[in-house]
Amino acid sequence: MSVAPEAAADSSTCVVLGAGSWGTALAIQLARVALPTLLWGRDSTHLGELQRDRRNARYLPDAAFPEQLRIEPDLKSALQASRDVIVAVPSHALRGMLEEIAPHLLPDARVAWATKGFEVSTGLLPHQVAREVLGESVPTAVISGPTFAKEVGAGLPTAMTIAASDPGYAAELAQRFSGQNFRAYTSTDITGVEVGGAIKNVMAIGAGISDGLGFGANTRIALIARGLVEMTRLGVALGAKKETFMGLAGLGDLVLTCTDNQSRNRRFGLALASGEKVEAAQKTIGQVVEGVLAANAVRSVAQRAGVEMPICEQVYRVVYEGVAPKDAVKELMSRALKPE
Ligand SMILES: NC(=O)C1=CN([C@@H]2O[C@H](COP(=O)(O)OP(=O)(O)OC[C@H]3O[C@@H](n4cnc5c(N)ncnc54)[C@H](OP(=O)(O)O)[C@@H]3O)[C@@H](O)[C@H]2O)C=CC1
Ligand SMILES: O=C(CO)COP(=O)(O)O
């Protein structure tokens, strides 16, 4: 396999790292709007299949690759071909991925990530991890919002948020992704956008548990509305803007993930409510379930920040302490009454 020479020479080339469902969908979107796009993944056998089939049968089987999408198995070559790097690996792999690419980035490289979650061992948000690894001089951005990979792969109308401290970079990246089917909004509130993306996964587990136990629409919406309060409270304590949580990367992604079974986090919650064990439920889903790690990380981050997050706390207890989902709900309902 090799990179098409015209792709390597073109300054508009983007490289996407991570050939799971989201990396593949993002690469398809960039190629769909006619940008030369390289997709790299860590498993060369899998990449060979992508090259052969012109689709990702394992992670995104229904979406055929546009012509502008090329598979690049060599990480260094991919990074030499483009200054615009988009990282789409799970949160547990983000630091390692950034460390691996750092020595090979072009001098004017810009790095964005689509990862949702905190780093569990440190409680750091992705932009804080990136700053530790890449330093201050590399322009960085986060891509987030209500964006199921399957729907982006299918070209269905979608909106997302791109946040960067440099508004020019966010605007340029938004321009690159946007097309007739896709609209990217910009923000400078990196912390808010990242907190939204991390917390909504924990809430989606909660919503799956609630629906799986047979509770109704009232319960689901109470969870979403109070979940938004928890998310906002933590975000603001960490320096985010309150308004960000009313946008695509806050409320938008929270509602999407809590209400649709495309969400792996929601399906994980449904499985727990049906009595499945944590490991078995993760195995059945067969893809990353970020809310499992986030439930753990958020607990420590919230405790450190002195922020009360009762729904996240109960999701943590179900996932890590084996508390029965029904008992977790009872606990939430019996909390002392307070003003909204
Ligand atoms: N899917 C979606 O709809 C969306 C996902 N996201 C976020 O995107 C991130 C990635 O998730 P998603 O693509 O969905 O996950 P998937 O489970 O679909 O795929 C995970 C991908 O990451 C790869 N990977 C795992 N560990 C490493 C590593 N150490 N180095 C390099 N690659 C690695 C896997 O490789 P391998 O196959 O070899 O294991 C696989 O290609 C998550 O943070 C998620 O929350 C954000 C928006 C939408
Ligand atoms: O982040 C997502 C949609 O915005 C994907 O959600 P899940 O990881 O729960 O599938």
TrEMBL record:
Entries under Pfam families matching the protein: NAD_Gly3P_dh_C, NAD_Gly3P_dh_N
UniProt binding sites for sn-glycerol 3-phosphate: K116, G145, T147, K200, D253, S263, R264, N265
GO molecular function: glycerol-3-phosphate dehydrogenase [NAD(P)+] activity; NAD binding
Annotated binding of NADPH, by residue: S21, W22, R42, Y59, K116, A149, R264, V288, E290
Domain called Glycerol-3-phosphate dehydrogenase NAD-dependent C-terminal: residue spans: 189-330
InterPro entries noted in UniProt: 6-PGluconate_DH-like_C_sf, 6PGD_dom2, G3P_DH_NAD-dep, G3P_DH_NAD-dep_C, G3P_DH_NAD-dep_N, NAD(P)-bd_dom_sf
One GO BP annotation of this record: glycerophospholipid biosynthetic process
Subcellular location field: Cytoplasm
Active-site residues (renumbered): K200 (proton acceptor)
A GO cellular-component term linked to this record: cytosol
Top-level enzyme category: oxidoreductase
Keywords annotated in UniProt: Cytoplasm, Lipid biosynthesis, Lipid metabolism, NAD, NADP, Nucleotide-binding, Oxidoreductase, Phospholipid biosynthesis, Phospholipid metabolism
Domain Glycerol-3-phosphate dehydrogenase NAD-dependent N-terminal: 15-167
Residues the record lists as binding NAD(+): G18, A19, G20, S21, W22, G23, A149, R264
Function: Catalyzes the reduction of the glycolytic intermediate dihydroxyacetone phosphate (DHAP) to sn-glycerol 3-phosphate (G3P), the key precursor for phospholipid synthesis.
Entry's family note: Belongs to the NAD-dependent glycerol-3-phosphate dehydrogenase family.
NCBIfam families, alphabetized: PRK00094.1-2, PRK00094.1-4
Protein name: Glycerol-3-phosphate dehydrogenase [NAD(P)+]
Originating organism: Steroidobacter agaridevorans
Chain's gene name: gpsA
